[in-house]
């Protein structure tokens, strides 16, 4: 199996998570294809006509996992016609589960491993609807703990000309979750990511009322491009 050059260093946890997720998805949704960071590289000519597929990152935040700071996640998104229509993010160390679906809303479930979930409605009843934090006079910006760029620093500098700005650092897709919760108003990402890094987070943010827009044209972010490497983007609470 040919490995992609953009893939970060693998850990045994990546492999085990990949195997468990793919097995579960294939058992439940045998006809829906899966595109995953740790999966086999699928040529664009084969996947370009997919109307629906799962986009999976079995361990997002490899650096956070290696550093043992708890800020790594498992991300699964369902993509339909190029856009995420469902996203789930689980932070195993925090035992916190985020999920979102446009039209349904976004939710956060703490102590997720202890929850008794028989169906979707039971899951929603035990969860907190997002956002949960109200607006204040301070602009809260969440940035990558591992990948700060000069462009991101410039974005923060521009905001500071007119507002009081608080900068929050977080790892993995938890940055999207902080925007969905209302803890942060902005998540600027002016550094490389891959499609599996962002799809689940985008679904959760959008279902909570936020946006994720491409830097170059301020249009909604979309997926299953020929080059799976993402361009710059801005996630905004409202």
UniProtKB/TrEMBL annotation:
Catalytic activity reported: a myo-inositol phosphate + H2O = myo-inositol + phosphate; adenosine 3',5'-bisphosphate + H2O = AMP + phosphate
Highest taxon above the source species: Bacteria
Keywords of this entry: Cell inner membrane, Cell membrane, Hydrolase, Magnesium, Membrane, Metal-binding
This protein's record includes keyword Membrane: yes
Enzyme class: hydrolase
A Pfam family assignment: Inositol_P
GO molecular function annotations of the record: 3'(2'),5'-bisphosphate nucleotidase activity
E.C. number(s) listed in UniProt: 3.1.3.7
Record-stated family: Belongs to the inositol monophosphatase superfamily. CysQ family.
NCBIfam families attached to this UniProt entry: bisphos_cysQ
Xref: PANTHER family: 3'(2'),5'-BISPHOSPHATE NUCLEOTIDASE 1 (PTHR43028)
Protein's name according to its UniProt entry: 3'(2'),5'-bisphosphate nucleotidase CysQ
Organism placement in taxonomy: Bacteria, Bacillati, Bacillota, Bacilli, Bacillales
């Amino acid at each position: 199996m040919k490995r992609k050059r953009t893939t970060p260093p693998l850990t045994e946890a990546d492999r085990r998570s990949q195997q468990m997720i793919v097995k579960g998805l294939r058992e439940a949704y045998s006809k829906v294809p899966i595109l995953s960071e740790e999966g086999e590289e699928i040529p664009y000519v084969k996947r370009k006509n997919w109307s629906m597929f799962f986009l999976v990152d079995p361990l997002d935040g490899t650096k956070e996992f290696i550093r043992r700071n708890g800020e790594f996640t498992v991300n699964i998104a369902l993509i339909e016609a190029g856009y995420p229509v469902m996203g789930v993010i689980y932070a195993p160390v925090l035992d916190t589960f985020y999920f979102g679906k446009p039209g349904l809303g976004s939710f956060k479930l703490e102590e997720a491993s202890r929850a008794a979930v028989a169906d979707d409605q039971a899951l929603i009843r035990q969860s907190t609807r997002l956002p949960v934090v109200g607006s204040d006079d301070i602009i809260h910006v969440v940035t990558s703990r591992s990948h700060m760029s000069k462009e991101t620093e410039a974005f923060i500098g521009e905001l500071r000309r007119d507002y009081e700005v608080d900068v929050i650092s977080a790892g993995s897709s938890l940055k999207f979750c902080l925007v969905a919760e209302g803890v942060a108003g902005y998540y600027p990402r002016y550094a490389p990511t891959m499609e599996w890094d962002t799809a689940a987070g985008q679904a959760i943010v959008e279902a909570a009322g936020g946006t994720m827009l491409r830097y170059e044209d301020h249009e909604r972010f979309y997926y299953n491009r020929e080059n799976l490497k993402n361009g710059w983007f801005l996630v905004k609470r409202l």
